[in-house]
Design a protein that fits this description.
With about 170 residues, the protein is α+β, with helices and mostly antiparallel strands. It has one domain: Gcn5-related N-acetyltransferase (GNAT) (Aminopeptidase). It is about 35% helix and about 30% strand. The chain contains six helices and seven strands; from the N terminus they run H-E-H-H-H-E-E-E-H-E-H-E-E. It has a seven-stranded mixed beta sheet with strand order 1-2-3-4-5-7-6, with helices on both faces. It is globular. Bound molecules: coenzyme A (COA).
């Protein structure tokens, strides 16, 4: 990303760092936060053992790449994932810890993740959002995403949104 926009300078400073084993517990708590479960593909509670296996598999395979979002003091505030679709696109999903929502972290993290994807040469970044998740729709729009289509995504009425390098926002 070359030039920082006015919006970006108003967002909190964040860092994305790859997840490590010590993050398992906090990620597990966040993933089971009721709002997170409600907006996820499968809303059921995630047992600790499943979560641990999921984290280890992701860390070993590198796809999806899981990053912890850290604030300026290196406190973890959320997690963001990038899944390489192997077709030139990369899929993004995220969750902000319940205590850290509505402070600009989600928007800032999406912008940073798009910048990573752009630097790696991906043609577009995709995200799938449950149609009723207005906050997420608003957050992705703010980060420069635009509407592609409505679809059934793993059984949920959802929106596909995309960001392409040079399309603004990020
Ligand atoms: C959706 C989510 C990632 C947004 O992250 P966030 O850090 O809270 O969002 P931001 O602070 O960057 O806010 C982005 C926009 O959403 C609005 N917003 C955030 N929380 C809101 C709330 N509770 N009510 C109304 N608007 C809200 C902000 O005001 C801002 O819009 P504006 O600048 O035009 O006013 C976060 O709420 C979350 O993790 N939710 C649960 C899991 C989830 O839905 N994940 C996404 C699945 S696709």
């Amino acid at each position: 990303m070359k030039n920082r926009t006015r919006m970006e300078t108003e967002l909190p400073v964040i860092k994305l760092r790859p997840v490590v084993v010590d993050d398992f517990e906090i990620l597990w708590r966040w993933r089971n936060d009721p709002e997170n479960r409600k907006q996820a593909v499968s809303p059921e509670f995630i047992p600790r053992s499943h979560h641990r296996l999921w984290c280890i598999t992701a860390m070993n395979s590198g796809n999806p790449r899981v990053y912890v979002i850290e604030d300026v003091d290196e406190n973890p505030v959320g997690e963001i994932r990038l899944q390489d679709n192997q077709d030139g696109s990369i899929e993004l999903s995220l969750g902000i810890g319940p205590d850290f929502r509505r402070k600009g972290f989600g928007t800032a993290a999406i912008i940073k993740a798009c910048s990573i994807a752009e630097n790696e040469g991906f043609e577009k970044v995709l995200a799938y959002i449950r149609i009723e998740n207005e906050i997420s729709v608003r957050t992705f729009k703010k980060a420069g995403f635009s509407f592609v289509k409505e679809l059934d995504f793993n059984g949920a009425n959802s929106l596909e949104v995309e960001w392409k390098p040079g399309s603004g926002g990020a």
